[in-house]
Amino acid sequence: MKIKALLLIVLFVFVSCTSGKYSPTIRFPYEWLGQPGYGGNIDQQNFVEPSDICFHPSRKTLFVVSDEGEVAEIKKDGSPIFNKKIPGDLEGITVNPDTGLLYIVVEGKDVVLEFDPDKREVIRKFPVNREYKGDPNFLQKQEGYDNGIESITFIPDKSHPEGGVFYMGNQWDPSCIMEVLIPLKSSQAETAEARIIRVLPFKMDDPAAMYHDPKTGLLNVVSDADNILVEITLEGKLVRQYAFLGDKQEGLARDDEGYLYIAQDSGGIIKVKDIRKSQ
Q: How many domains, in total, are found in the chain?
């Protein structure tokens, strides 16, 4: 009996001290705007499968895309401004703050659309070359379905020949975060190829949502599969990880007042106060 008890104690200590691949123990620091768990949904239009969201710094509004091909501009409280239909499974959206233009990912086709929010139309297309380091099918194309590019963010850089670079998250096959070059300035063609520059060494399943924080210089990336948010450097080094709120989180944005918006594929756009900077 003493030996059995000793073995149980050893087993308990081992399990308690061993963590899984992604098992953060730190709750993401945030505050609900209303009743905890219920008071933060600002979706006034009942978007079907909202898949991403971004904050437009000059317009002070939010842009939402959905799996059903919907592009919408809304106010910070969710009030609608306009809605537009674009063919395709729209999975990611980001903004170039210098031009005000938006960039939208179409999953399956793995193409990035340049969208003018004033004209409310697509003006250019950038198909992403699947090749990387000699592998022509690094981003694998599957028959009947595609777990391709799921998230996107733009990082402006005035010294860069294209005005900045894009970071994108590929859902599966393989799951990765990559830097992608899009010829924003060097090409005036209506269709021009985007290509993968590098793949970050950081490993994460299903990087479904991301944005770049210009104050910290870090990428904030959410794994839908593991319900975590990580802060990583542009070189792919992990800085922090948190257990993250929400359900099927596929979109993430932070506005100029410190509020965080989470687009849920299961429905709803959650707004909470991000208090990381105040802790």
A: 1
Q: Does residue 16 sit within a domain?
A: no
The CATH number covering residue 263 comes to 2.120.10.30
Contacts for 192-196: CB closer than 8 Å, 24+ residues apart: 192/124, 192/125, 192/126, 193/126, 193/127, 193/128, 193/129, 194/112, 194/126, 194/127, 194/128, 194/129, 194/166, 195/128, 195/129, 195/131, 196/128, 196/129, 196/131, 196/132, 196/138, 196/139
Cα separation, 153 vs 168, in Å, equals: 7
Q: Is residue 15 part of a domain?
A: no
Q: Cis omega before residue 174 (within 30°)?
A: yes
pLDDT per residue over 18-49, tens digit each? 444 444 558 899 988 876 666 689 999 999 99
Q: What would the pLDDT profile of 57-85 be if each residue is shown by its tens digit?
A: 999 999 999 999 999 999 999 999 999 99
In a domain, residue 150? The reply is yes
Paired tokens of 144: 């009947």
Residue 109 sits at the vertex; the CA angle it makes with 176 and 117, to the nearest 5 degrees, is 95
Query: What's this model's pTM, rounded to 2 decimal places?
Result: 0.88
Pairing of strands 176-181, 164-170: antiparallel
224 part of a folded domain: yes
Query: What is the domain extent for residue 184?
Result: 25-278
Residue 275 Ramachandran class (φ > 0 left, ψ -120 to 50 alpha, else beta):
alpha
Q: Which amino acid is at 85?
A: K
